[in-house]
Every structure is written in C-alpha cells, then in structure tokens.
Amino acid sequence: MKTDSVRTILYALAANLAIAAAKTAAAVFTGSSSMLAEAIHSYADSGNQGLLLWGLKQAKRPPSPDYPLGWGKAVFFWSFIVALVLFSLGGLFSLYEGWHKLAKPEPLKYGWVAIGVVLIVVAFLVGIEIKALLIGQSAEPETEARLREVLLQQEGIAKIYRLITLQLGTSLMVAVKAKIKANTAAELVASINRAEAALRTEFPEIQWLFFEPDVAD
C-alpha cells in the first residue's frame, strides 16, 4: 500500500520528466535550440528528487522530546520546496522570454506548443497536494474504511464512535473511540489489545495508536 508521501514524490518526479519530455518533443518539432536548452534544464530539475530523498531520510529519525511525533513531515517540507522551485523557475523563465521577445520581436511560430502552461499547472497541482499534507491530512478514505472494517471484526467492539487518522510522512497516527462489550476490566483490556494488534498487523505503518473505550451497558 502506497502512502501519500511516496505518491507525492512520484508526482514530483513524473512532473519533471513529463515537462522535460514535452520540451524535448517541442525542440525536435520546432528545431529551437533554446527549447532544447530548456529541455536539458528540465531534466536537470529531476535532481530535485535528491531533496525528496533527503526528506525521506530525515523522516526516519526517531521521535524526541522536541519532536514527539517524529520527523515524518520532513518529506512534505522538501516536496513543498520542490514545488516552489518549479513555480519560481517557470515564472522567471517566462519573464525572461517575454522581455526577450519584446526587445527583439520575431514572427510567432508554433504558438500552440504551451510549455509554460504545462509547467504552471503541474506545479500548482503538486503544491496543492503537498499543502494538504503539511497542514495535516488524514489517511485516504479507502484506508479509513478498512480501519473501521478491521475494528468491527474484532470481538468485543460493538460500535465505533470516532476514528481520526493523520498522515505523518510514511507513518500513520490513529485515534479511536469505540464502544466495547465487557463485563470486567480484564475483558476490556483484552478487547483493546486484540483490536490494537489487529490494526498493527493490517497496517504496519501505524506508529501511534490511541484507543478510548466506552463500556457498553
């Protein structure tokens, strides 16, 4: 199962490669040396993945008193930096090209080759995705649905009042409030332990799991 952080990295890599491929095709079609230079530049932009790999390495650092939930979101920060780089480089290049064409007008050729638009749209979409993760996005709906399913399959779990998830890099935090059928404290503890064990088996990415029980009448 892919986590949001891995998907984000793949989005960024795919964006860089798609832009580079589009510019390469445009350079071949138009014979433009400047477009070819831009294609090479876009391939170099794929080096941004190094920042993302660095983010992944930081995300694996263990929790500490200053960072009790760990460093999982570090990968989102570096992904956001990549998105900003895409925006800034694309914008600066557009300004340069605009000034260059105004200073030395040339007849318009192949105006339908919309590279700048592709750059801005892709970078904007990547930025939106990463913004949600930085703020604190929950797990995917399919993941939450499976979490509920696994919980309700456990003996003693009568009803789920609330399920909160938070994606923290490659790790997941889960908080559950559920009604539990139990006659004794021992039965209550056993039900909670079974539920937690089942969740961790099904979702090994869970690093923090909080369970608030409500004993059924």
List the helices and strands and how they pair.
Elements: H1 4-30, H2 33-45, H3 49-59, H4 74-103, H5 115-135, H6 141-152, E1 157-168, E2 171-180, H7 185-202, E3 206-215
Parallel strand pairs: 2-3
Antiparallel strand pairs: 1-2
Helix pairs in contact: 1-2, 1-4, 1-5, 3-4, 4-5
Oligomer: single chain
Q: What letter string, H or E per element, gives the SSE order?
A: HHHHHHEEHE
Task: Give me the Rg, rounded.
Answer: 24 Å
From the spread of the alpha carbons, the general shape counts as: elongated
Structural class: alpha+beta
Helix amount, in percent?
A: 55-70%
Note down, in words, how this protein is organized:
The chain has seven helices and three strands, in the order ααααααββαβ. It has 217 residues and is an alpha+beta fold. It has two domains: 4-135, no CATH class; 141-215, Cation efflux protein, cytoplasmic domain (Alpha-Beta Plaits, 2-Layer Sandwich). Strands 1-2-3 form a three-stranded mixed beta sheet, with helices on one face. Helix 7 (185-202) links the parallel strand 2 and strand 3 (206-215). Helix 3 (49-59) packs antiparallel against helix 4 (74-103). The protein is elongated, with a radius of gyration of 24 Å. The model has no long low-confidence stretch (mean pLDDT 78).
